[in-house]
Design brief:
eight-stranded antiparallel beta barrel; Porin; mainly beta; elongated; 10 strands; 1 helix
Length: about 200
Protein backbone atom coordinates (compact mmCIF):
# COMPACT_ATOMS: atom_id res chain seq x y z
CA UNK A 1 0.00 0.00 0.00
CA UNK A 2 2.83 2.40 0.86
CA UNK A 3 4.95 1.44 -2.19
CA UNK A 4 2.42 2.62 -4.83
CA UNK A 5 1.96 5.89 -2.89
CA UNK A 6 5.73 6.41 -2.76
CA UNK A 7 6.01 5.70 -6.50
CA UNK A 8 3.27 8.25 -7.21
CA UNK A 9 5.12 10.84 -5.11
CA UNK A 10 8.39 10.14 -6.94
CA UNK A 11 6.61 10.55 -10.28
CA UNK A 12 5.02 13.82 -9.12
CA UNK A 13 8.34 15.23 -7.87
CA UNK A 14 10.13 14.15 -11.07
CA UNK A 15 7.48 15.95 -13.14
CA UNK A 16 7.88 19.06 -10.97
CA UNK A 17 11.64 18.95 -11.47
CA UNK A 18 11.50 18.86 -15.24
CA UNK A 19 8.74 21.47 -15.53
CA UNK A 20 10.37 23.95 -13.15
CA UNK A 21 14.10 23.53 -13.81
CA UNK A 22 13.99 26.03 -16.67
CA UNK A 23 12.69 28.74 -14.30
CA UNK A 24 14.82 27.90 -11.25
CA UNK A 25 18.51 28.33 -10.69
CA UNK A 26 18.69 24.80 -9.36
CA UNK A 27 16.57 21.81 -8.37
CA UNK A 28 18.03 19.08 -6.14
CA UNK A 29 16.64 15.55 -5.92
CA UNK A 30 18.00 13.18 -3.27
CA UNK A 31 17.52 9.84 -1.57
CA UNK A 32 18.90 9.11 1.86
CA UNK A 33 18.54 7.37 5.19
CA UNK A 34 18.63 8.34 8.83
CA UNK A 35 17.69 7.35 12.37
CA UNK A 36 15.32 8.83 14.97
CA UNK A 37 16.49 10.10 18.34
CA UNK A 38 14.20 11.05 21.21
CA UNK A 39 14.23 11.26 24.99
CA UNK A 40 13.34 8.29 27.16
CA UNK A 41 10.78 8.40 29.95
CA UNK A 42 12.65 8.39 33.32
CA UNK A 43 9.80 6.33 34.84
CA UNK A 44 10.14 3.55 32.26
CA UNK A 45 9.94 0.83 34.92
CA UNK A 46 6.21 1.53 35.28
CA UNK A 47 3.93 -0.55 33.08
CA UNK A 48 2.53 0.73 29.80
CA UNK A 49 4.08 4.20 29.72
CA UNK A 50 4.43 5.70 26.24
CA UNK A 51 7.78 4.59 24.75
CA UNK A 52 10.29 6.95 23.14
CA UNK A 53 9.89 7.39 19.39
CA UNK A 54 13.39 6.47 18.28
CA UNK A 55 15.53 3.90 16.48
CA UNK A 56 15.04 2.22 13.14
CA UNK A 57 16.44 3.07 9.73
CA UNK A 58 14.42 5.73 7.86
CA UNK A 59 14.88 5.87 4.07
CA UNK A 60 13.88 9.26 2.65
CA UNK A 61 13.19 11.05 -0.62
CA UNK A 62 13.50 14.83 -0.97
CA UNK A 63 13.58 17.63 -3.49
CA UNK A 64 14.24 21.34 -3.30
CA UNK A 65 14.04 24.28 -5.67
CA UNK A 66 16.46 27.15 -5.00
CA UNK A 67 16.19 30.50 -6.76
CA UNK A 68 19.02 32.90 -7.63
CA UNK A 69 18.54 34.85 -4.38
CA UNK A 70 19.35 31.65 -2.39
CA UNK A 71 15.75 31.24 -1.17
CA UNK A 72 13.42 28.45 -2.20
CA UNK A 73 11.27 25.58 -0.97
CA UNK A 74 11.61 21.85 -0.35
CA UNK A 75 9.59 18.72 0.34
CA UNK A 76 10.52 15.42 1.94
CA UNK A 77 9.04 12.08 2.96
CA UNK A 78 10.63 9.47 5.25
CA UNK A 79 9.38 6.20 6.70
CA UNK A 80 10.93 3.41 8.69
CA UNK A 81 12.49 0.57 6.69
CA UNK A 82 11.22 -2.20 8.99
CA UNK A 83 8.12 -2.02 11.18
CA UNK A 84 8.86 -1.08 14.79
CA UNK A 85 7.37 -2.75 17.89
CA UNK A 86 5.32 -0.57 20.24
CA UNK A 87 5.85 -1.40 23.96
CA UNK A 88 6.89 -4.93 23.00
CA UNK A 89 3.54 -6.09 21.63
CA UNK A 90 2.26 -4.22 18.53
CA UNK A 91 3.93 -3.42 15.23
CA UNK A 92 3.71 0.11 13.89
CA UNK A 93 5.12 2.23 11.07
CA UNK A 94 5.61 6.03 11.31
CA UNK A 95 5.66 8.13 8.13
CA UNK A 96 6.95 11.72 8.19
CA UNK A 97 6.34 14.28 5.47
CA UNK A 98 6.98 18.02 5.34
CA UNK A 99 7.25 21.11 3.13
CA UNK A 100 9.69 23.86 4.03
CA UNK A 101 10.90 27.34 3.17
CA UNK A 102 14.66 27.12 2.48
CA UNK A 103 17.60 29.51 2.68
CA UNK A 104 20.65 28.06 0.88
CA UNK A 105 23.79 30.17 1.46
CA UNK A 106 26.98 29.38 -0.46
CA UNK A 107 29.71 28.32 2.01
CA UNK A 108 32.74 27.71 -0.19
CA UNK A 109 33.74 26.04 -3.45
CA UNK A 110 31.48 22.99 -4.06
CA UNK A 111 29.75 23.43 -0.69
CA UNK A 112 26.36 24.96 0.21
CA UNK A 113 24.14 24.82 3.27
CA UNK A 114 20.36 24.47 3.46
CA UNK A 115 18.53 26.00 6.43
CA UNK A 116 14.83 25.21 6.49
CA UNK A 117 11.64 25.49 8.47
CA UNK A 118 8.12 24.37 7.67
CA UNK A 119 5.12 22.21 8.45
CA UNK A 120 4.08 18.67 7.72
CA UNK A 121 2.57 15.63 9.31
CA UNK A 122 3.22 12.29 10.92
CA UNK A 123 1.07 9.30 10.05
CA UNK A 124 1.44 6.26 12.30
CA UNK A 125 0.06 2.91 11.16
CA UNK A 126 -0.60 0.53 14.07
CA UNK A 127 -0.98 -3.01 12.73
CA UNK A 128 -3.53 -5.48 14.10
CA UNK A 129 -2.60 -9.01 12.94
CA UNK A 130 -6.16 -10.30 13.41
CA UNK A 131 -7.75 -7.34 11.61
CA UNK A 132 -11.03 -5.66 12.40
CA UNK A 133 -14.19 -5.52 10.33
CA UNK A 134 -16.98 -3.01 10.07
CA UNK A 135 -20.03 -3.29 7.82
CA UNK A 136 -19.72 0.27 6.46
CA UNK A 137 -15.94 0.33 5.75
CA UNK A 138 -14.99 -3.34 5.38
CA UNK A 139 -11.96 -4.97 6.99
CA UNK A 140 -8.66 -3.36 7.88
CA UNK A 141 -5.45 -4.60 9.48
CA UNK A 142 -4.22 -1.23 10.76
CA UNK A 143 -5.35 1.85 12.67
CA UNK A 144 -4.10 5.30 11.68
CA UNK A 145 -2.99 8.10 13.95
CA UNK A 146 -2.27 11.46 12.30
CA UNK A 147 -0.46 14.46 13.78
CA UNK A 148 0.53 17.91 12.62
CA UNK A 149 4.26 18.62 12.92
CA UNK A 150 6.60 21.60 12.69
CA UNK A 151 10.03 21.03 11.19
CA UNK A 152 13.34 22.87 11.41
CA UNK A 153 16.38 21.43 9.70
CA UNK A 154 19.85 22.01 8.36
CA UNK A 155 22.19 20.22 6.00
CA UNK A 156 25.54 20.67 4.29
CA UNK A 157 25.52 19.87 0.58
CA UNK A 158 28.92 18.97 -0.92
CA UNK A 159 29.26 18.47 -4.67
CA UNK A 160 31.51 15.43 -5.10
CA UNK A 161 31.46 15.10 -8.90
CA UNK A 162 29.81 17.28 -11.54
CA UNK A 163 26.15 17.55 -10.44
CA UNK A 164 26.24 14.73 -7.83
CA UNK A 165 26.34 15.62 -4.14
CA UNK A 166 26.41 14.10 -0.65
CA UNK A 167 24.51 15.78 2.18
CA UNK A 168 24.68 15.14 5.95
CA UNK A 169 21.47 16.48 7.50
CA UNK A 170 19.38 16.87 10.65
CA UNK A 171 15.66 17.58 11.15
CA UNK A 172 13.98 18.42 14.43
CA UNK A 173 10.25 17.63 14.45
CA UNK A 174 7.85 19.08 16.98
CA UNK A 175 4.85 16.74 16.72
CA UNK A 176 1.64 18.25 18.05
CA UNK A 177 -0.07 16.07 20.68
CA UNK A 178 2.17 13.06 20.05
CA UNK A 179 0.32 11.14 22.77
CA UNK A 180 1.41 7.69 21.57
CA UNK A 181 5.03 8.44 22.52
CA UNK A 182 6.94 9.95 25.42
CA UNK A 183 7.99 13.22 23.74
CA UNK A 184 6.57 15.65 21.19
CA UNK A 185 10.12 16.34 19.95
CA UNK A 186 11.94 13.92 17.64
CA UNK A 187 15.33 14.40 15.95
CA UNK A 188 16.08 12.67 12.64
CA UNK A 189 19.74 12.62 11.60
CA UNK A 190 21.19 11.03 8.48
CA UNK A 191 22.68 11.63 5.07
CA UNK A 192 21.52 11.78 1.45
CA UNK A 193 23.02 11.46 -2.01
CA UNK A 194 21.53 13.38 -4.88
CA UNK A 195 21.74 15.19 -8.17
CA UNK A 196 21.43 18.91 -8.97
CA UNK A 197 19.58 20.06 -12.08
CA UNK A 198 20.12 23.53 -13.50
CA UNK A 199 23.39 24.54 -11.81
CA UNK A 200 25.53 26.66 -14.13
Amino acid sequence: MFIPSACALVLLFTTLVFTTVACAQQVDVAVGAGILLSTKNPNASEAFLPPPEKGGLYPSFSFDRIFKNHYGYSGEIATVYKDQVYNGFQEYRPIFYDVNAVFAPHIRNRMDADLMAGVGGERILFYNPSGSCNFSVGCTIHLDSNHLLFDVGADLRYRVWKHFFVRPEAHLYHIVNNAEFHSDNVLRVGASVGYTFGRK
